[in-house]
Every structure is written in C-alpha cells, then in structure tokens.
Amino acid sequence: MKSKFTTYLNNIVMIFILLILQAGFIYDKPCGAEVVDRVVAVVNDDVITLSDLEVATRAYTEKIKSAGYGFEEEHAMLFKMREDMLDQLINRKLTDQEIKKYGISTNDKEIDNSIERIKEAKYLTDEELRNMVTKDGMTFDDFRDAIKENILRSKVLDIEVKSKIVITKEDTKAYYDSHKSDYMPQNKYHLFNIIIKTNSEADGDDKHEAMSVMEKIYAKLKQGQPFEEVSKDSAESSGVENSDLGYFKADELSPQIQDAIKNLKQKEFTKILETDLGYQIIYIKDIEVKPGKSLDEAAAGIQGILFNDIIDKNFKLWMEQLRKKSYIKIIK
User: Fold this and answer.
1) Residue 249 to residue 260: CA distance in whole angstroms
2) Which of 37, 86, 182, 264 has the highest local Cβ count within 10 Å?
3) Which CATH architecture has domain 4-168+300-330?
4) How far is CA 179 from its chain centroid?
5) CB of 193 within 8 A of CB of 243?
6) Strand, coil or helix: 279
C-alpha cells in the first residue's frame, strides 16, 4: 500500500514533470490579461508568490473546471485545492531550506539516470520527451534544473526520515503471526459461465423456459461435450450468454458460488445455479495454485509494509517539528 510519505515524495519528485507531460509548463500570461504577482506566503527567509501557486495549480484547476460541477461545488473544490497546494509548496520550501543546511548536492549522472527512469515510466524516446518539454516554452535545461531540485529534496528526506527507521526481526515475526491467513496457500480460479439472465419481475413461465434451456445445455455437458463447444453453440440461442469471468480467489466470490465450486477440479463445472443475475453454470477452466510463504519468504514484503507504516508517522512528525520551529505566514 502506498504510504502518505511516498505520495508526498512522488509529488515533490514529479510535480514539474506532471505539469509538462500532462498539462504543459506555461510561462506566458493569458492573452489580454495583466498578471499582478504578489507574495502569498512567507517561509522563514523565503517567499511563495502567486505565480508559483498558479503554476502549481494550473493542471488541477483546468481538470476541476472541465468536470461539469455546479458553481458552488466548483468554487469550494478550487478553494480547497489551492489551500492544499499552498500547504504542499510550504512543505517543499521547508525541505529546500534543509537541503541548504545539510549542504546536499547531486551530479549530472544522477540527473541523467532520473531522466532515463522518467522515459521508461512514460514509454518515451529521448526525442519525444524533449519535444514535450519544449513545446510550451520550457527549455530542456530548465527541465534538468527541476529534476535536480527534486533529487535534492529526495536526499534530505532520506536523511531526516528514512535513515532513522529500524525494523527488527521481532517486528517482522509479530506481523507475520497476526496476518497468517495472508501467507497461507491460496487457489485462484479461472472461471467461465453460461448464463440466461432473468430479473425479479420475470414471471413463472419465463423462468420455466429459461430453466428448460439451461437443462438442455447442462445435459450436453454431462454427456461429455467440451465446455467451449457447448458454450459457443448455446450462444446462438436467444437469451443465452457466455463470458470469461477472469481469475478469482475463493473469498472474492459470493458464498453461493464458493460452495458450488469448492469440491470441483480443473475442467469441471457446477450444477445449474439460480443466482441474482439469472440461471448460470460456472466452469473452472484453470486453477492457479499460489503456494504459501514461510516467515523467511515473506520477510522482505512485511518489512516493506512496516516501513511504509512507520515512515508515514515519522514524516508527519518531522514536518510538524520543522513547521513549529519555522516562521510561516500565509497572506490571504
């Protein structure tokens, strides 16, 4: 599960990239409009300007305005989004000040590696990325500077938050023992069905007719005809449908279907089931057996879960402490 810290870290690493790749990084002011910049927040010796906030919120503003909300709801959402973004910018400014305090640095190789990861994640060639960066007036050097800033922010968070987390063997074992069911062997069933849909308003004659058709289909299956063949032939009948339902763990299925398949093997099928959707036969095409995991096998994954739980708390505490000892003034 993605932690709040990870979400924040992703935000500070990707904020410029998202603006470029999704909405465009726009420097020019709207045609015919005069933009008057002002300070919206003071953070120690630094300031956040209205233009900083406008750039950071532009993509989200456009998304909200295009969603078709009513006037009051749109206004409330825009106000809340701007407040949240300003809060994020204050956190980023505080983080940048910690970078200076620690004298943290990066280099061209780290920046190049980060850009390569972006290209891989977005399935972009170098030329495509450069075109997307430059098409709205941002140079590739500007883009590299943005990547550099965010690498530096990641490093200070490593020092202040990640490096102070210790997960013991006892912690790992305690989690494993309290979540034993997650590490037991599990089957996943690849299910298909043949169904005649009915609804609660269907009369007795309609239900009787649907059941008669299903009984004929069931008889063919019992005679040994392949499910795929019967399914294909039956689909030509009026009202008969068939589907590849996909893979399911037993506990993801309704109690009725769980009970119907619990003793079946691969390539076997249920009796005719009267379900909320209608009359259907469920066929097990394949059973994927997921083996259980010992404590040693599960340890790495458990440590990741515990790490995220702890990092949320530590990050929140660190940021609260940083804000308490800082001078922060929001100017409405």
Assistant:
1) 14
2) 86
3) Orthogonal Bundle (1.10)
4) 23
5) yes
6) strand
What per-residue confidence (pLDDT) applies to 84? Answer: 94
Structure tokens at 206: 């309609």
Residue 202 CB neighbour total at 10 angstroms: 14
Pairing of strands 273-274, 240-249: unpaired
CA–CA gap between residue 231 and residue 305 (Å, rounded): 44
Q: State the virtual CA torsion across 87, 90, 94, 97 in degrees, nearest 10.
A: 160
Check: CB of residue 241 under 8 Å from CB of residue 181. no
Measured CA to CA, the distance from residue 113 to residue 116 in angstroms comes to 5
Q: For residue 95, give every residue at least 6 positions away whose Cβ sits within 8 Å of its Cβ, in sequence order, or none.
A: 12, 153, 156, 157
132 Cβ contact partners less than 8 Å away, ≥ 6 residues apart: 20, 21, 124
What is the domain partition of the chain in residue ranges?
Answer: 4-168+300-330, 186-290
Rounded to the nearest 5°, which phi and psi values hold at 117? -65, -35
Which two three-digit tokens encode residue 143? 């883009």
Nearest of 286, 287, 283, 288 to residue 227 by alpha carbon = 283
Fold annotation for 186-290: Chitinase A; domain 3 (3.10.50)
The answer to whether residue 312 scores a pLDDT higher than 90 is: no
Q: What pLDDT digit, counting tens, does each position of 176-187 carry?
A: 999 988 888 888
Q: What is the pTM of this model?
A: 0.50
| Whole-number Å distance between alpha carbons of 152 and 156 | 7
Q: Judging by beta carbons within 10 Å of its beta carbon (0-12, 13-18, 19+), is residue 170 exposed, middle or buried?
A: exposed
Residues 202-251: pLDDT tens digits?
A: 677 888 888 999 999 999 999 999 999 998 888 777 788 988 999 998 88
How many C-beta atoms lie closer than 10 Å to residue 314's C-beta?
Answer: 16
Two structure tokens written together for 67: 């969603």
